[in-house]
Amino acid sequence: MMPKILIIEDEPAIVELVTLYLQKNGFEVIAAYDGLEGLMMVKREQPELVILDLMLPELDGWEVCKRLRQDSDIPIIMLTARGDDVDKIVGLELGADDYVTKPFNPRELVARVKAVLRRNRTGAMQNGVVHLAELTLDPARREVRVRGERISLRTKEFDLLHTLAKQPGMVFSREQLLDQVWGYDYVGGTRTVDVHIAQLRQKLKHSGVHIETVWGVGYKLCVDDD
Ligand code: CA
Prior knowledge:
The chain has 8 helices and 12 strands. The protein is an alpha/beta fold. The chain folds into 2 domains: about 5-125, Response regulator (Rossmann fold); about 125-225, Orthogonal Bundle (Arc Repressor Mutant, subunit A), CATH 1.10.10.10. The protein starts with a strand and ends with a strand. Calcium ion binds near residues 10, 11 and 55.
């Protein structure tokens, strides 16, 4: 599960540098060299995040960002020059998620990409309360109840359960769970996931749901049959 990043930038040297650093950090990178091509590639390739230069041929970064925002909330990081009005860029007017000023350190850009993706995921988790059998999970309050009784979970146990419970029956690989719960930059191994699953299983007794091991793949959350 490599997240796909689209960079829209007309300077090949910058595209090359950014691609190199992102790939080293486990991202898949695709590039467009002008604004129109960029818009087309967002539609066709469905990247998870766009790095967008302001100064572009055909359609400049302002226009590309505006058009993207008309029908999508895809995360956008702008590449700007010193002196650009960054308040407008990340503010309401353009709605980019973050910006980096040229010349930039590619490591810093990678860090921004990770942070924006993480923020975006957390945002997506703030939907409604999950009810499954005797289990209730309230993401806003970060509360879990079994038969109405509150049970205490650690932060990562909660996030892990939430990820699984949002899509019951769906199989998640250990790597997917690591990425979603611990983040792409987490250095520990997938064994962490197993340990937390074991703890969750203890705490989910009498909840009417259980976490199944899918051999060779990962885990899924299931409602007990009767
Ligand atoms: Ca440019």
